[in-house]
Amino acid sequence: QVLDLIRERQRKLGTAVIFITHDLAVVSEMCDKINVMYAGRVVESAAKDELFRHPLHAYTRSLLKSIPATHAKGEPLYTIPGLPPDLSRPAPGCSFQPRNKLGKSELCLTDKSPSLDEIQPGHFAQNCPGCLAGV
Length: 135
What we know:
- By secondary structure, the chain is an alpha+beta fold.
- The protein has one domain.
- The chain has helices at residues 2-13, 24-30, 48-53, 58-65, 129-132; strands at residues 33-38, 41-47, 116-120, 123-126.
């Protein structure tokens, strides 16, 4: 009901709405464009359908792989290993490198943070070789 009310007000007022959520079901229902964030930075940005069909960054792929509805009944849920980084002491390089199991963590940048680049038309991702590997 709340989402319907937000959608109605959005249409009536002709405004944009920014959702900040971990609920990918809400994202798929309500959003046209998605920014995926990890450790306080955007790691991927694309139109909803493009992002759900063709995720580029290893963190986005990990999130989508962990959706319960994508698993057969009784199949164990995918979990992203490890813990998020300590943002009070950010390390140089790719912040997802220690948890990157769907790309090639050995190829992740270690000396500088990856830039957010347009990898495909309208589809932006942190340009980290290790996180984009395996796409």
